[in-house]
Amino acid sequence: MKNSIKLLSSIFLAGIITICFSNDLNAQDVLSVEDMNSVYKKELTLNKKVQAYTPLREADVMWSRKIWREIDLREKMNHPFYYPENDGVGATTGDRRSLIDVIYSAIKEGSITAYGNAAIDDEFREPMTQEEIKKIGGAKEEIVEVIDWDAVAAGADPEEAKTNRLVKKEFDRNSVKKWRLKEEWFFDKQYSNMQVRIIGLAPLQEDRDEVTGRLTGSFSPLFWVHFPEAREILINAEVFNSVKNDAERRTYDDIFWKRMFNSTITMEANVANRRINEYMVGLDALLEAERIKAEIFNIEHDLWEY
């Protein structure tokens, strides 16, 4: 009787092992390229929902101030915003894309509204038209007259060998080296703490000299996007985890939410609407940015009594 039970148990276990092994084989047949490059199968994470902001009443805001700051992508901490670089055909590393690739692609497909006059208007007044979107970053299409030198070599007259050709210049997304943020700091008396919310994002492209074509070291904004609207796109765009933990997949929305970037304050709301670099230069400008940062901290700190 015992031998019979052992025999049945062995047959049962063998059947389970066979079923599991066959399931593994079937699973391998449907693995994607991303799954084959990992020890586990990635779960479906599309259409993630953004975490809603804490409800806020105007009556609860005791103090607020608008701040503009810039994120320099050349700093090591900010590299996840810049890489992987774009090779002109939408380069990706696995399922990752640079921030400008994510934003620009969403603008072209109509998921995000881009606002023009970025250098002088950051209040989202004028949405860009499709023609303006096609010209972002100096992109253009033009018909130029060229000479067909093969026809000339065959004996044709150079004037008769002229032909028109469509020349396309694509937007070089790798030229975006900075991002400008517009945000508002406020003290909420309902929760008795200082909070910050990002209002807008603007990519800054490095300028080139019109004559020599060399980089000038200055930057110009290309457009503005309303950050709360862009969050729906950013929450589904994964980014490299600088903490060196590939199992914790973060998104651009996570990085902005947790303030995992380094930036410099370039302007605070003021009566003359001046940026810091208009009245301070060099080290003095950096010290002024730190003064504004410390002032915001002290406002919250001074509300408490110890």
Task: Produce a short descriptive summary.
With 306 residues, the protein is α+β, with helices and mostly antiparallel strands. The protein has a domain at 58-138 and 172-301.
Secondary-structure map:
Blueprint: H1 2-29, H2 33-36, E1 61-72, H3 79-82, H4 99-109, E2 114-115, H5 130-134, E3 140-147, H6 149-153, E4 162-169, E5 176-188, E6 193-208, E7 215-221, E8 224-226, H7 227-234, E9 238-239, E10 250-251, H8 252-257, E11 264-268, H9 283-301
Antiparallel strand pairs: 1-5, 1-11, 2-8, 3-4, 5-6, 6-7, 6-8, 9-10
Runs with pLDDT <50, length 5+? 16-28
What sequence of helices (H) and strands (E) makes up the elements?
A: HHEHHEHEHEEEEEHEEHEH
Tell me about the largest β-sheet: 7 strands, antiparallel
CA(first)-CA(last) distance: 80 Å
**Secondary structure tally: strands:** 11
Helix content: 25-40%
Features:
single chain; alpha+beta; 306 residues; seven-stranded antiparallel sheet
How would you portray this structure in words?
This protein is of the alpha+beta class. The chain has a domain of 211 residues. Helix content is 29%, strand content 25%. The strands form three sheets. Strands 1, 2, 5, 6, 7, 8 and 11 form a seven-stranded antiparallel beta sheet that branches. Strands 3-4 form a two-stranded antiparallel ribbon. A hairpin with a 6-residue loop joins strand 6 and strand 7. It starts with a helix and ends in a 5-residue tail after the last helix.
